[in-house]
Amino acid sequence: MGLEHQDNVTYIPSHPHLFRVHFAPGFHSSSLKATRDFVAGEEICRLEGVTNAENAWDTIQYGKNQHIRLNSDLVYVNHSCDPNIAFDLSSANREDWYSRALKTISKGDALSFFYPSTEWEMDQPFECWCGSGACLGQIKGAAFLPREELETRGYVSPHIRTLAEERGIWPS
Ligand SMILES: [Zn+2]
After folding, report:
1. For the purposes of burial, counting CB atoms within 10 Å of the CB of 71, is it exposed (0-12), middle (13-18) or buried (19 or more)?
2. What is the pLDDT of residue 157?
3. How far is the CA of 103 from the centre of ligand 1 (A)?
4. Is residue 149 part of a domain?
């Protein structure tokens, strides 16, 4: 999700064999880039060390009202409307939460996920500049998107499906 510029001198990568933060000045300008290749469907890593949190710009939603903080370099995964990874927090067992590649990822590629795949109503909506042909422009969360815009991005979390069905956005 990108944080403010940090001093590279103090940066200790959390998963250097998988990805590494590329710092850039400005909000959401930093990115997380793969340090190896991944094939579509491949597990990137388990989400170890997550903690419960209130909904915020840097949290991931995993239930109707439940959010976690990643506490690793994965917080630098930016949004894209054409994402190359997913955060799968669908298991009842937290140890099975993981990130996976949605498509072929080459070493050096920036990792991205579709925020509305986990976020129902985002704490901080923003204007997307991902450059994808499928770019939605304003990203506010799944609550503001029709079904076809959610289901064509590679992954939708179960709690998002449930909330969409409850609100009548999707027929159950
Ligand atoms: Zn976009």
Report:
1. middle
2. 97
3. 17
4. yes
